[in-house]
Amino acid sequence: MAPGKCQTADLRAWGERITCPPMAKPMEATVQADYDAALAADLQVNTQLSTWQMLWRTAQRVPDNAAIITGDTHISYRELAAQTLRAAAALAELGVSNGSRVAFVFHPSPDWAVLHYALGRLGAVGVPINTSYMAAELEHLFALAQPELLIIVDRFRDVDMTGRLSPVAARFGSIAQTVVLPVDDDGWVDSSPDRDRVFGPDGGAALGPASRVGGGDPAYIIFTSGSTAAPKPALIAHRGMVGAATGLQHALGLVPEDRFVASNPVFHTGGIVWNLTMPHLVGMTSCLVGVYETGKVLREMERSKITVMGAFDTKLTMMRNAPEYHTVDRSSVRKCNVGATGSFLRSVLPEWNWETVAQVYGSTESGGLGSITPRYEADPKVRYDANGRPMPGMEFVIKDPDTGHRCGPDEPGEICFRGWGTFIEYVGMPETTAEAFDDEGYFHSGDYGFLDEAGNLYFRGRYKLMIKTGGENVSEREVEIFCEDNLEAVKFAIVVGVPDPLWGEAVVAFVELHEGATETSDGLVEACRGRIANFKVPKRFFVVTDEDWPLLDSGRPDRHELRARAAALMGAEGDTRLRFGDG
Fold it and tell me: Is residue 322 part of a domain?
């Protein structure tokens, strides 16, 4: 099978392959069989839907339920669907149609939700822009994604987004129009003629609900860092996000009465799936908090009686450190989807009232979610230490990265997968796409892990040179190239990740300076500011001489030794991380 070919095939081909995973212990077989059969049946139907078709179906079922709550604003499913169709008509007037690429800068807000579904109704492809991106990163994004329309809020966290993006966008002929939306003091989009151009005026024309866009059609270009030197543009289909939401619905036992606290950034699949697709598949309420602040999220839990949350170790640590953690009432939160080590998860369990906890494995290339802890799992070790079970229709295998041979149960290797959630291609990068898939159509994730006898997945690290810090993926090579190309004092750089109790991993750089240069770590950190996204800025620079590099037999620096040195030095010098950056 040609790389990427299976991802663009008619969804019926995937429907035929949605089968249940292997049975667990005999005493659990009936419960597992019923759960897996119900999940497989729902996936068979739901993965044929676009995100808009999913919303429209829910709006017919529970029209008066609150789809979104933002502060004192409540938007019902009926109202959200109507606003979406009005925005779709307005965007069509701007020339947006099936296949158009629309780049945007937004934070979690009702207007973002309307734009998301309007693009889905039209069949346009969204290109969300990381709010931390600087000029070089924006140039890379525009060059590969080739958007035709750019929509941006004028400010984000007091940053002039117009001033940051407009000069870069002006250099790209593909961008025919740029629409700037003013935001008010609370961070919400304000009324303006430009807002009406995108969302339509009150009482304006609206499109009908019928759409030919389906689950297999492209929905988003999401930029995700890989083992190469720069983020790669992964083309994601609607079915990946709707399928991920279906898995979350079953694993957490979600019902229309649930309320989710939505604070994930909109430029990741996690923000799209968790903030919108998951709650709106079920008919529950998404409580959008806007620009992320830990205290605000905790207060929202009490204010809106949140029942569902999603978090990873860094966010949970930030919550623990916030004053509100010990003052607000969080007891209504009963369901949590989490990404953390088993030991960390066990440490926070006594502090929450969770009745259901589900671990996950996912990535941009898997549509956000590939495996999740099923609701029937009763073994605490599996529930907390494993990263769930592959969902029906998502096939996972472990392969030896050198030989390509399949590994047996409990034998570690590279995590590979294929199925309805797998991305379509890296846009504009056919060779990179081809290299990422093998002859069986499996995507090679570069992640290290294993499957146990029962089919549970265990993610245990990365083969690729990646650092996961505060939920963001950072390519070591990308930061190395940045340091060598942009920091005048730096002659050579090696970037590694070291374990960090707050960020998961901290970005650390070893650098050799040009002769005569005397830069300090503080000075190098400050030289990075405003030139590369904050989460990529090394928390610490260690200066070494030519003779200090630990080398492999090949003559290349020994990254494993450097990681060990960095961990030891960070520990010996005390908690220096937060002095050098906020991630």
Answer: yes
